[in-house]
């Protein structure tokens, strides 16, 4: 199968390219300098002779998006639309990576893939628009929502926490946001499994199983670097006064993945233990 990965220099794009390469797929990684996904002519030129186009490019600066929603919309909605249009025209299938931020996080049970979206932030609105645009342009598209990503190929929460744990005697981390920490390598492998299983067009949730707060996750990260988890104190999201609201409950249900006959990603703590050395050493 011939694959194109856009945003290939990003945290997910790097692992996806590597996973495809190692599995012997024909993969064309396109970083931003190879393809600006918001340039219609460049997209039309680049998306040829391909079976699957996975869009890993995105405007991911959640707080900055509040002040420049137009720029975020261009990258998170218009770019994916152009890619999906070009993919469909050439007979390829689009995979659009999306986010838990399409939900407001007010639920208390895991979000099923077909729950109506209700974003509370500019980033979430633009990513939700990207989902709709891709579905409208490519009837065979897969939308794969993920959350709480970490990986060796970019700055991420565990790497920041490991550094802070080395520099300080104590840390204060929020207890009132709950989610599913997810390794970009696991998400990459899930995307490949979904495409190889010829999953029906639709929406899939690509996150680890189980759930934990940022505080609980940090305790495990600190343990991984040989420090005492007791150094991790508690605080609340309100103390940070972030520009964009974050979903308090970011737990996604994996029902559509299972229905496609594809194994979801395993338990978040077990996956962190498998990932820690690579992610913290990266
Ligand atoms: N990180 C998370 O926790 C998280 C959570 C939920 C969902 N997601 C989603 O997962 C996907 C991958 O995220 P990530 O963490 O891997 O993001 P990332 O590391 O920020 O990578 C995004 C990539 O897109 C590139 N890019 C920016 N503008 C572009 C353009 N006009 N054309 C082509 N490429 C462009 C960026 O290049 P530059 O660096 O040069 O700008 C960067 O390499 C995104 O769809 C994101 O919304 C992420």
Structural write-up:
- Helix 4 (69-89) packs parallel to helix 5 (122-137) and helix 8 packs across helix 10.
- 41% of the residues lie in helices and 16% in strands.
- It has 10 helices and 12 strands.
- The protein is globular and about 55 Å long.
- The model has no long low-confidence stretch (mean pLDDT 97).
- It is α/β, with parallel strands linked by helices and 282 residues long.
- It has a 6-stranded parallel sheet, sandwiched between helices.
- It has a domain at 2-147 and 183-207 and 250-266: 3-Layer(aba) Sandwich (Rossmann fold), CATH 3.40.50.
- Helix 1 links the parallel strand 1 (2-6) and strand 2.
- The chain starts with a strand and ends with a helix.
- The longest helix is centred in the N-terminal third of the chain and has 21 residues, at 69-89.
- Bound molecules: NADP nicotinamide-adenine-dinucleotide phosphate.
- NADP nicotinamide-adenine-dinucleotide phosphate (NAP) binds next to helix 1 and strand 4.
- NADP nicotinamide-adenine-dinucleotide phosphate binds at residues 6-7, 9-13, 32, 35-38, 56-58, 60, 75, 97, 99, 127, 146-149, 154.
């Amino acid at each position: 199968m011939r694959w194109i990965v856009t945003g290939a220099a990003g945290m997910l794009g790097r692992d996806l390219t590597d996973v495809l390469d190692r599995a012997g797929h024909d993969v064309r990684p396109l970083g931003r300098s190879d393809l600006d996904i918001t340039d219609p002519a460049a997209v039309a030129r680049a998306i040829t002779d391909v079976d699957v186009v996975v869009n890993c490019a995105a405007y991911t600066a959640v707080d900055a998006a509040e002040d420049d929603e137009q720029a975020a919309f261009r990258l998170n909605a218009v770019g994916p639309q152009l890619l999906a249009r070009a993919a469909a025209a050439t007979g390829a299938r689009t995979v659009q990576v999306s986010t838990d931020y399409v939900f407001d996080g007010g639920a208390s049970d895991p979000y099923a893939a077909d729950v109506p979206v209700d974003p509370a932030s500019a980033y979430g609105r633009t990513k939700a628009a990207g989902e709709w645009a891709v579905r409208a342009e490519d009837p065979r598209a897969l939308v794969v929502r993920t959350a709480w990503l970490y990986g060796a190929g970019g700055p991420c929460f565990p790497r920041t926490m490991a550094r802070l744990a080395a520099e300080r005697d104590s840390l204060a981390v929020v207890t009132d946001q709950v989610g599913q920490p997810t390794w970009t390598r696991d998400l990459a492998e899930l995307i490949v499994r979904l495409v190889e299983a010829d999953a029906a067009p639709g929406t899939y949730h690509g996150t680890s199983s189980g759930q934990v707060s940022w505080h609980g996750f940090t305790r495990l990260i600190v343990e991984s670097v040989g420090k005492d988890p007791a150094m991790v104190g508690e605080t609340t999201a309100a103390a940070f006064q972030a520009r964009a609201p974050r979903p308090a409950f970011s737990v996604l249900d994996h029902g559509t993945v299972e229905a496609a006959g594809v194994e979801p990603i395993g338990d978040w703590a077990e996956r962190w233990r498998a990932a820690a050395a690579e992610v913290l050493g990266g």
